[in-house]
Amino acid sequence: MNSVTGISITRAPVAPSMKAIRxxxxxxxxxxxxxxxxIPEPGPGEVRVKVAVSGVNPTDWKNxxxxxxxxxxxxxxxxxxxxxxxxxxxxxxxxxxxxxxxWLYLSQYQRPSGxxxxxxxxxxxxxxxxxxxxxxxxxxxxxxxxxxxxxALTVSEDGPTRLHPxxxxxxxxxxxxxxxxxxxxAIQLARWAGATVVTTVSGPEKAALxxxxxxxxxxxxxxxxxxxxxxxxxxxxxxxxxxxxxxxxAELNAAVAANRASxxxxxxxxxxxxxxxxxxxxxTNARYQFVLLYTVGADALKAAEEDVTAAAAAGVxxxxxxAGLPLHRFSLADTAAAHDAVENGTVGKVLIDL
Length: 354
Known about the structure:
- Helix content is 27%, strand content 25%.
- With 354 residues, the chain is α/β, with parallel strands linked by helices.
């Protein structure tokens, strides 16, 4: 009621809004803009999460840049990984309720709604309860890196398909690039599962990070004969290789692989193609396995989800300088700078606080 005119006025309810990063075309980080948007409602089989921390991975800037294909939606919020609190659930969702602490993975896969926004709606299949003793920082760092590492460690012909303490007892694992996010997670998971872990790095600073992550042996490939050093550690060769740079390391891998070894390739650092010497790989019955989380299949994703959560609950997948993965924090408004940091090869984990 207007006290002056005596006329009753009914105002339409104002839809709650949120801050969100959006892009409507592919390109460099300048296409990312901070916008106000209505908070979305979850549909059947979906969960709305109030995001606390969004994790940035190379796949996020590559998707944004157009390197992986054209934009599939009119408007996209980037970033696959994150952690936060369930805010609402859609019809048919079971096992998750408002207030649950959760971590998210592949949030923006075949969807327009990533984690670079205050609220995101995600398929319930990609929303996982976060153990109470696990921080949102760890939760936002699990998805792409830890699940990729899990897959790389479980593709061996003679190895386990699941990870748990003792799963890799008696195995020697070589992690190429142990200071990277996937390499860091691979070191942590392999050690948790009982393997002897060897990693290669390019300098003393990265060596310190790999050691902090839990690597038993660190080899600087720029200062010595990496193959001889690795063979001295593992005279019979290494059983599993987690590979980030197959073009650069093909010769090294052939030289140190044990009989029936598996080389799991999850990135193409150093070149888009590589050449293999047939004879040494044939002699050892080597297996080359390519790994891309988006297309590993539902069973592999579920196995990784469960094992990674168990490892995190056990305190295995910690992040931060002391754990071997320095954190670089950005605000939501600075998402473009966060993407640039990952694209430019910043060592550590880039997180966005919401």
